[in-house]
């Protein structure tokens, strides 16, 4: 046998043992890793049980522990691969895990001998052939042992449990992912965030306060009473506005036949009271500044031709006819003044129409407010943001309603002003939208009027009950009505539903009672005098 | 390499032929035959221990016949003299009437010698035998006579009827490579023994090996290499029989007064080599060593008073030593 054959056999055996050795080192590293993970688990467990550090631990301490542990593991792995052990251990392992009967150990021993016998060479050759059929992976499989999984799972769980810091979640934002070079940027970002948060909280608090205030305001009986009074005032003003508009239209139709007053007629027909007032004033100026009696005569004729029979304007034309007779400067001045008064009257009509329009708008706003309140009460589990939005809208509508109400009270005539005790304050417990007919209160306006008349007569005996019976027999004491209230008009139903009096007569009734009250108040004063 | 393979193959064939030929006469006792052959092939001697009638002498006689070697038997008795073993110088006269000493070789001058009931001879006679066993030579007067190879002594002793016997001293027991215990045959083996020995013609073993072949087989056995780690295992096993030693076993410390000598390790290694060849291996394994621990070490351990008093069997101690001594890992 030549030398090359010996070398080949040795190389084969040593190569095989080298592969087994590497696998054994990997397994040793895994065992060391397992032990290390157990140690880490023990450390974390001890830190938890004995309170070595506060929980959650500081981030620096965690990084330090994990860093030392990681470096130790890396060192262990490097050491296990670099330490010099020779191939005797893999030879022993291979012999133990195969049926080689110590052939690899013997061969390795013979290979290391400086001189070998031919029997030794023979044994090496035999062993080389045997090793050629072996697989290092089968002899030393790299398998993660169960303790590795147990220890790793335990360590990971403990690390996650002990390392968890709830504050980290709060600190996580866009600025936490980078560290700006300029410290002022980070400061500015933090200040801005804080300011935004503060403003949001403040705004939310204001909204909450406004919501509570509005709720209190709406729940107050006075407010409900005001709402009812405003509703009544709105209805009366609307009636008057329609009457005024009708008057203007009729006056325009009457003046239409007079060519000189065509513009005035057109303005009146289009219910433009402001324009009509301006035209009347310009007519008064013309009358004042008339240069000749012919111009004056033509103007007066044209005015006279106008077949006007409407209230104040009819009086004006009468004055003009009287002034035509004498044509004195005084009479002309009186005519001009009459025209000026008519213009002023038209202007006041215009203002009243504006006030009526404002009241009408206020009524619509009030209706929307009632709808919002109804939705808020019925949908109690609405989202806070939506609730705030609804409250904000209600607050806005409330503000509009208050301003319009004030404007109406300021601009309107005394008849449209809302008296504080103008009507019964509803109990706000009326039907909330039921569609079934509801029997109204057993007192109609006729009966009320009779009872109130009896009360004002200062009689000592009580009011005879036969008034009710008689009117009942006449089928006047009761009035069945059908509650037409709907879901979104709760306040309207509450204000109007408790009265059986049609709204178109309500102002009349109100004036009646006001006159009664004024009379009853005036009597004690006169008697005291 | 082919030569070695041939040697191993030849060894196998020869060994098997001896065993099969002995098997024609000897019923069972394959381990005993194997042990005897191991000792023969490793230049050792064997001590057979067994009660009378188990075929000790028959085995030796059969082996002598099979190996076609010169065989002698000495029945050891208390009046046996060393000269009766090794021979003696006798005075002779020439034709001229001149007297001279002529060495008359004793029965020890043979290839196979059966020292039957060796413990019945006096220590003086025993010593004469044991010297020849160790030195492979005998000294008579001023002349040393070399014994012819192979020289193989098979001694037997009876463990009972110890009255008037001279147990072999430790130093002399150590000269035997193996001590084999012959046990009672099983029932089937007894049937076979009856069938073979109660007929007109008993089966006879014929010679299958010549002296030269035996010597070649010895060379083959001694050529088998053993790794240091395996040899270390044999040494550790030996040292485990030494009381109060670092490697000693607990039972050794308790019952053993003296442990096995280096001859015990030699016996382990040599016996292991034979076992390796028998297992078609060119190297000794730990398994081969374990296979010969009992015959190689059992007679080399001297029990202390406590061990003797409790009649402790050394095989029990060796069993525990085998169990607790780890095999070579690298």
Largest sheet descriptor of chain A: none
| Mean pLDDT value of chain A | 66
- The CATH topology of the largest domain in chain B comes to Rossmann fold
CATH class of the largest domain in chain B: Alpha Beta
The CATH homology group name of the largest domain in chain B = P-loop containing nucleotide triphosphate hydrolases
CATH architecture classification of the largest domain in chain B: 3-Layer(aba) Sandwich
- Sequence of secondary-structure elements of chain B: HHEHEHEEEHEEEHEHHHHEHHHEHH
Helix-and-strand structural type of chain B = alpha/beta
Question: How would the global form of chain B be characterised?
Answer: globular
> Helicity of chain A, in percent?
over 70%
Q: What are the segments of chain A in which pLDDT stays under 50 over at least 5 consecutive residues?
A: 172-178, 380-440, 479-488
The secondary structure category of chain A is: mainly alpha
Report the radius of gyration of chain B as a whole number of Å.
21 Å
Biggest interface, chains and residues, is: A-B, 26 and 23 residues
Count of individual helical segments of chain B: 15
- What percentage of the residues of chain A does DSSP assign to strands (E)? under 5%
Roughly what is the average pLDDT of chain B, rounded to an integer? 87
Q: How many domains make up the coordinates of chain B?
A: 2
Please render the helix and strand layout as text.
The complex is a heterodimer of chains A (about 525) and B (about 325).
Chain A: H1 3-50, H2 59-82, H3 88-97, H4 103-112, H5 118-132, H6 136-139, H7 146-163, H8 166-171, H9 183-219, H10 221-255, H11 262-269, H12 273-288, H13 293-305, H14 311-326, H15 329-378, H16 384-411, H17 445-456, H18 466-473, H19 490-496, H20 506-528
Helix pairs in contact in A: 1-2, 1-3, 1-5, 1-7, 3-4, 4-5, 9-16, 10-11, 10-15, 10-19, 11-12, 12-15, 13-14, 14-15, 15-16
Chain B: H1 2-23, H2 30-41, E1 46-49, H3 56-67, E2 71-75, H4 82-86, E3 87-93, E4 99-105, E5 112-116, H5 123-135, E6 137-140, E7 143-146, E8 152-157, H6 170-173, E9 178-181, H7 187-197, H8 211-223, H9 228-239, H10 250-255, E10 256-258, H11 262-278, H12 286-291, H13 293-297, E11 302-303, H14 305-309, H15 314-324
Parallel strand pairs in B: 1-8, 1-9, 2-5, 5-8
Antiparallel strand pairs in B: 3-4, 6-7, 10-11
Helix pairs in contact in B: 1-2, 2-11, 9-11
């Amino acid at each position: 046998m030549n030398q090359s054959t010996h070398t080949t056999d040795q190389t084969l055996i040593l190569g095989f043992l080298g592969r087994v050795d590497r696998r054994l080192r990997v397994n040793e590293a895994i065992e060391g890793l397992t032990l290390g993970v157990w140690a880490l688990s023990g450390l974390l467990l001890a830190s938890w049980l004995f309170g070595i550090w506060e929980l959650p631990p500081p981030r620096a301490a965690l990084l330090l522990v994990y860093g030392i542990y990681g470096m130790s593991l890396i060192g262990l792995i490097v050491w296990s691969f670099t330490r010099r052990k020779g191939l005797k251990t893999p030879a022993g392992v291979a012999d133990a895990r195969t049926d080689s009967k110590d052939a690899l150990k013997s061969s390795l021993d013979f290979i290391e001998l400086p001189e070998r016998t031919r029997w030794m060479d023979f044994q090496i050759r035999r062993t080389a052939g045997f090793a050629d059929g072996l697989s290092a992976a089968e002899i030393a499989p790299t398998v993660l042992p169960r303790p590795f999984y147990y220890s790793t799972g335990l360590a990971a769980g403990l690390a996650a449990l002990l390392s968890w810091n709830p504050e980290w979640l709060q600190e996580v934002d866009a600025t936490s992912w980078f560290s700006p070079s300029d410290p002022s940027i980070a400061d500015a970002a933090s200040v801005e965030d804080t300011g935004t948060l503060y403003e949001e909280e403040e705004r939310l608090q204001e909204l909450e306060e406004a919501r509570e205030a509005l709720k209190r305001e709406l729940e107050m009986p006075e407010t409900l009473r005001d709402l009812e009074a405003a509703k009544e005032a709105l209805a009366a003003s609307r009636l008057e506005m329609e009457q005024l508009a009708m008057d203007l239209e009729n006056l325009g139709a009457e003046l239409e036949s007079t060519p000189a007053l065509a513009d005035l007629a057109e303005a009146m027909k289009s219910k433009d009271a402001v324009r009509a007032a301006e035209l009347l004033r310009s007519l008064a100026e013309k009358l004042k500044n008339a240069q000749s009696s012919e111009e004056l005569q033509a103007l007066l004729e044209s005015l006279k031709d106008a077949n006007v029979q409407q209230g104040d304007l009819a009086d004006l034309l009468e004055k003009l006819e009287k002034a035509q007779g004498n044509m004195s400067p005084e009479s002309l001045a009186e005519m001009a003044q009459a025209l000026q008064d008519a213009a002023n009257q038209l202007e006041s009509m215009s203002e009243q129409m504006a006030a009526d329009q404002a009241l009408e708008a206020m009524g619509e706003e009030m209706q929307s407010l009632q709808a919002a309140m109804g939705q808020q009460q019925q949908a109690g589990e609405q989202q806070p943001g939506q609730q705030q939005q609804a409250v904000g809208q209600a607050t806005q509508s409330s503000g509009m309603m208050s301003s319009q109400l004030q404007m109406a009270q300021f601009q309107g005539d005394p008849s449209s002003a809302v008296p504080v005790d103008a009507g019964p304050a509803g109990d706000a417990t009326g039907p909330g939208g039921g569609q079934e007919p509801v029997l109204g209160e057993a007192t109609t306006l006729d009966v009320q009027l009779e009872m109130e008349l009896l009360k004002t007569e200062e009689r000592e005996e009580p009011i005879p009950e036969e008034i009710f019976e008689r009117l009942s027999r006449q089928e006047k004491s009761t009035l069945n009505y059908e509650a037409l209230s709907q879901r979104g008009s709760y306040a309207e139903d509450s204000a109007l539903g408790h009265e059986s009096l049609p709204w178109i007569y309500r102002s009349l009734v109100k004036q009646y009672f006001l006159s009664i009250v004024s009379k009853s108040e005036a009597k004690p004063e006169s008697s005291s005098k | 390499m082919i030569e070695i393979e041939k040697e191993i193959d030849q060894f196998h064939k020869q060994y098997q032929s001896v065993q099969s030929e002995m098997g024609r006469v000897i019923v069972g006792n394959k381990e005993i035959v194997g042990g005897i052959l191991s000792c023969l092939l490793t230049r050792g001697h064997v001590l057979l221990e067994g009660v009378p009638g188990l075929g000790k002498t028959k085995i030796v006689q059969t082996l002598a016949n099979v190996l076609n070697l010169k065989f002698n038997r000495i029945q050891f008795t208390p009046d046996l003299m060393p000269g009766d073993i090794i021979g003696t110088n006798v005075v002779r006269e020439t034709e001229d009437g001149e007297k001279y000493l002529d060495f008359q070789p004793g029965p020890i001058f043979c290839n196979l010698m059966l020292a039957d009931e060796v413990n019945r001879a006096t220590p003086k006679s025993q010593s004469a035998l044991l010297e020849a066993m160790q030195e492979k030579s005998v000294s008579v007067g001023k002349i040393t006579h070399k014994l012819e190879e192979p020289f193989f002594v098979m001694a037997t002793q009876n463990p009972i009827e110890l009255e008037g016997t001279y147990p072999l001293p430790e130093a002399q027991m150590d000269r035997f490579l193996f001590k084999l215990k012959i046990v009672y045959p099983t029932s089937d083996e007894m049937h076979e023994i009856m069938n073979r020995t109660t007929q007109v013609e008993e089966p006879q073993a014929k010679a299958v090996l010549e002296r030269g072949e035996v010597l070649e087989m010895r060379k083959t056995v001694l050529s088998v290499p053993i790794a240091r780690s395996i040899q270390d295992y044999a040494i550790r096993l030996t040292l485990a029989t030494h009381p109060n030693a670092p490697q000693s076993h607990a039972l050794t410390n308790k019952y053993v007064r003296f442990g096995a000598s280096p001859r015990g390790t030699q016996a382990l290694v040599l016996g292991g080599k034979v076992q390796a060849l028998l297992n078609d291996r060119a190297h000794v394994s730990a398994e081969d060593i374990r296979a010969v621990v009992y015959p190689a070490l059992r007679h080399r351990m001297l029990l202390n008073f406590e061990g003797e008093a409790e009649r402790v069997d050394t095989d029990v101690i060796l069993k525990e030593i085998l169990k607790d001594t780890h095999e070579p890992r690298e």
